[in-house]
C-alpha cells in the first residue's frame, strides 16, 4: 500500500498504484454483492431460494450468539470445522510432502510407490466414507481421514513434480563440491521444489475445505458442513448460503495466510 | 488402404458399442427418470378409456385420456411402496395413469426437486420442509409410522436400568442417570429426534443432556455395529435388521405417543394442471392401502421385491414384520381425516384445523419449539392452506 505505481516489465495492466489495484478488488466484491442484492430485491431471483446479502449479514450477526436452528453458534461451528479440516490438512502435508519428495528424487522409491499411488489417486474422497465408518468410527479421526485423503494427493503430486524439476546445473555444481546424494536432496532438491510444492499445498487447502461438507455428512453434531445440512433439512436457504459463505471466506483467509508464508519462505525465488 | 478402412470400421463399431452401453446404463443417482415406454413424458396421449368403474379393480372411474404423473418415489418406505404395488399390479394403468419415476432417499432432496415431480410421499419432517420452503402441499395423511425405535446394546446401562421406571410408559427402559451424557446416532431434524426428545422428557431430560450425532439410518446402524455411540434411532427396514441383530429397543414411537404421520404430497403445479389425475390417484392410493392391510402376505412379498429392486437391505422376516405393523389410513379414514376439523392445539389460528393439519402440526410444533422453524412459518403454512383438503373434497364430490 505504498501508493507507488506498479510497472509491469512487459507493459501489461493499467499501471495503477497498488492502492488503486486493492480498491479494484474491493469494488469487484461490492459489485458482486450489489448485483446479488438487486437480483433478489427486484424479484428476478426468488427470495425463497436465494437470501439477500443483507439478510445473510443479519443472520450472521444473529448466529454469532444464537444456536438456532442448527444447534450451534457460528464460533462453535467454525471451531468444530477447523479442528477437522486442519487436522486432515496438516496430516496430508506431513505425510504427503515427504512421500512426494522421495518419489521425485529416488527412482526406486518412485517405482515402488507409484503403482499404488496411481490406483488411489482417482478415488474420490467421499467414496471412502463407508469404509472410514467401519475403520475409524465417527469421531474426528474419521472426518480428518476423508479430508486427509482429499489434501494428500496434490501434496504428493506437486512435491514430486517440483523436486524432479530441479535444475541439473545446480545438482552438478553440488556434486562437484563433493556433496552426497542425500545432501543434494536436502540442500538443492527440496529448496528448488518449494514454489511448486506450495502450489500443491494451496490446492490441498482448497480440497480440504471443499471436502468439509462431505466429511461432516459422515456424522457430525456441529460444524459448518453440519450447519449447511441442517439448513437443508429445515428448508433454510439462508442458513445454507451463510455456511457456504463462511467456508469460502475462511478458505480465502487461509489461502492468503499461506501466500504470506510462501512469500516469506521463498523470498529468494521471487 | 483396405487395412486402414478395416481399422476405421472396427473403431467405429467399438465406439457404437460403447455408446449403446453408456446409454443403456440407467442413472442410479438420487433422482432418475424412467419414462413409461411408448408414452411421451408429461404429455397426454390417446389411450382406450376403460368402459366404466365396474371394469376397474377398485371401482374407480378411469381418466378419459392417459395422463403421466411425475412421481417422487421414496425408496424403501411403506408410503412409497403403495405406488410400487399399484404399478406392478396394473391398477394405475387401468385408470389411465402412467408414472415417470424419480427416486429419492431423503425428504429435503425431494423437496428441493419439487419442480420435477407432481405427486410423492414423505415423512412428516420431510413434508414440513416442503410446505414451509417449497411449493409443496400435503393432500393426505398416508400412514402412521410404528417402526421407529431407540436401540441400545444389551450391556448398556440404559437397558440394565430396566423398564417400568416411568408410570405412563411402563415399556420404556432406562433412568435419568443412565441416559444423561449418552451419545445417540440418528437423523437429526426428523421424527427420530422428536422421539428421542419425548423419551428423554420422561426422565426430566432434554436433548441438551445427550449428544446427538447426525447420521442417516443406514450409516447409524453401520457405525453402531462398529462400536460407536451409546444408542441409535432407526426406522423402516434398518430398524427390523437391528432387532434381528439383537440390539435392544428401549423406547418406540408408540411408547412416547408420538403422532408420526407420513404424507401424500402434490405440488402447486400438479394441483393446477393435473387435478383430475391427482384426484384419481388419491382414490387409488388409499384403496391400495386398504388392499395392503387386507393382504399382509402379499404386501410383504411386494415390499421385499421393491427393496431388492431399489438395492435396499431387507430380509423376508423384516418385510413380514413391516407388513404386520403397517397402518395405512385406507380410503375412508383418509377422506375423513382431511375433512373433519378440530381446534388448533396451540390456539393460534382463528379457524379450526383439519385432522391432516393436526397430524402434520404435531411434528412441526416440536421443531417450532426448538427454534428450527418459526411461528410465522407455522402461520404461513396454515394461512396458505399448504395442508389442503381440496383433493379429498374433490373425491367426496365425485362420489356424490
Number of helices of chain A: 11
As residue ranges, the low-confidence spans of chain B are 16-50
Report the β-strand fraction of chain A as a percent range. under 5%
Helix content of chain A: over 70%
What are the key terms here?
heterodimer; A: 270 residues; mainly alpha; B: alpha/beta; 12 strands; 16% strand
Could you walk me through the main structural features you see in this protein, from its secondary elements to its overall organization?
The complex is a heterodimer of chains A (270) and B (400). Chain A is mainly α and 270 residues long. Helices cover 74% and strands 0% of the residues of chain A. Chain A is built from eleven helices and no strands. Chain A has helices spanning 18-41, 53-63, 74-105, 107-120, 129-136, 140-164, 168-176, 181-210, 212-218, 224-233, 237-265. The two termini of chain A are 19 Å apart. The model of chain A has no long low-confidence stretch (mean pLDDT 87). Chain B is α/β, with parallel strands linked by helices. Chain B is 47% helix and 16% strand. Chain B contains 18 helices and twelve strands. In chain B, helix 8 links the parallel strand 6 (183-186) and strand 7. In chain B, helix 2 (78-88) packs across helix 12 (275-294), helix 12 (275-294) crosses helix 15 and helix 12 (275-294) packs across helix 18. The longest helix of chain B is centred in the N-terminal third of the chain and has 23 residues, at 2-24. In chain B, 49% of the residues are buried. The model of chain B is unreliable at 16-50 (pLDDT under 50). Chain A binds chain B through residues 48, 67-69, 71, 130, 133-134, 137-139, 218-221, 226, 229-230, 232-237, and chain B through 108, 111-112, 125, 129-130, 132-134, 185, 188-190, 211-215, 219, 222-223, 226-229, 367, 370-373.
